[in-house]
Design a protein that fits this description.
alpha+beta; three-stranded antiparallel sheet
């Protein structure tokens, strides 16, 4: 198994539109940096409802210590059936105490926003 480099990732995007919307500036170190979408669910939310984010607020989410959040990506990903995608969190976020507990890969054939 081999990992795709920047050139291969860009070619895959051209051939299959793996990420929509796609921004060239988000390709870094052979990876694509996904962004926060419009929905967040916080386990300690008073209402128990999904929080809707829009362009009028800061689009910053505060997750209290010991709590979980489900975050929807802005981008929709389409993983070809002969590929698998890996999910990681930037080291800077990990050092703040944020961890990924949802899994570390995206299955072949997946086609939707990541949660």
């Amino acid at each position: 198994m081999a990992f795709l480099g920047v050139k291969e990732l860009n070619q895959l995007q051209k051939d299959y539109e793996v990420i929509l919307p796609f921004e060239d500036r988000r390709v870094k170190n052979s990876a694509y940096e996904l962004s926060l979408g419009s929905e967040v669910y916080l386990t300690d939310a008073k209402t128990g409802k999904v929080e809707k984010l829009d362009k009028t607020n800061s689009r910053q989410v505060d997750i209290n210590p010991g709590q979980f959040a489900l975050l929807l990506t802005n981008e929709k990903v389409h993983i070809p059936k002969d590929k698998i995608a890996f999910i990681s969190i930037k080291a800077g976020e990990k050092l703040k105490g944020l961890i990924n507990v949802s899994g570390f890969h995206v299955d072949p054939g997946f086609n939707d926003h990541l949660l």
